[in-house]
Amino acid sequence: MYYYIKNIMTKNINNDEKFNNENLKKTITKKKSFFSFTNFFKKTKNLILHKIKNIFFKKKIDSSIYHNLKEILLLADVGIITTNYLIQNFKITIQKKNITDVAEAYNIFKKKLYTFLKFETQNFIQNVNDFKKIHVFLFVGVNGVGKTSTLVKLAYFYQKKGKKVLLVAGDTFRAAAIEQLKDWGKFYNFPVFSKNLGTDPSSVIFDSLKFALIKKFDMVFIDTAGRLHNKINLMHELKKIDRVVKKYKKYIIQETILVLDACIGQNSIQQTRFFNKTLTLSNIIMTKLDGTAKGGILIAIIYELKIPIYYICVGEKIHNLVEFNSKKFIDSLF
Questions:
Q1: Where would I find the AAA+ ATPase domain in this sequence (predicted)?
Q2: 7 with 211: CB under 8 angstroms?
């Protein structure tokens, strides 16, 4: 059986490579930065905050409040199903408690949002902290969502915690995909497992997991080819990959992560439904939240699909991967 594993170091590289690496290093801060959630969701906040506060500046509560709230939530891509249920639930509470004070109504509305986002990632976090088995992260998603770069960010996060990580080039259809992962491996000193272009990705993944067991890696991060959720043949291939990973279930803890682009809004719901039907998703990582006003889609995904958001990507730098916190998310919008 043939294995190709290369731990690419930055030593003995030519001047051009040194120049490129130096430029890349300039994009990475020397010290990990921590920003408030307010900065992460600035565009969504700008859309929601002032409009919602204007609604509650009224002296009394009337039917226009519910109509205006609904309009704002839909603009933020909370979605019609979640928005209707939220507004109806809010309205019932206001009428049942006979609330007339707008400030009190504002706080009730905020608490309703907290309740909607109570679905947490506790089980996943507990699994990750259990290192008796190898943790295998299978990354899936459509083309262009930032799947590979997100995979590298999560691998880097755990590498800094002292974990022995392995990257697997499971996208064997594009030469650029394999080379991209090798380049990341070179820069961050990740071992990368890959085979020749055109190799059956299931074969690559099967062999990579055998290698990981032999070499006693803590975590394996598997990249897969981007695929549209409505391409049946490609989704069947993903099922095959999932079956191959499950052959090692005695020795691993598997997490199947869907990477979503926040900028596409409600289309995220449809994508998630298809991928979850095919694979049973463990959690979601949402990218590009720093560049969209459609952050409300997080509320819709968690409420409608009951799939936790594990991390959010809020920039291109290696440390711009932040653990999602539902309370901080709501607080950042109000």
A1: 133-313
A2: no
Q: Which of 116, 148, 170 is the last residue of a domain?
A: 116
**pLDDT tens digits, 147-178:** 999 999 999 999 999 999 999 999 998 888 89
Task: State the DSSP string of 32-100.
Answer: -----HHHHTHHHHHHHHHHHHHHTTSSS--HHHHHHHHHHHHHTT--HHHHHHHHHHHHHHHHHTT--
Digit-coded pLDDT (tens) for 92-101: 999 999 998 8
Q: Show the domain range for 98.
A: 37-116
Distance CA 161, CA 257 (A): 20
Q: What is the mean pLDDT of residues 310-319?
A: 88
Residue 197 and residue 159 share a domain: yes
CATH number of the structural domain spanning residue 98: 1.20.120.140
Of 69, 101, 116, the domain-final residue: 116
Higher-pLDDT residue of 15, 119: 119
Q: Phi-psi bin for 9: left (phi > 0), alpha (psi -120 to 50), beta?
A: beta
Look at the block and give the residue holding tokens 């006979």: 98
The DSSP bridge partners found for residue 252 are: 134
* Whole-structure pTM value: 0.81
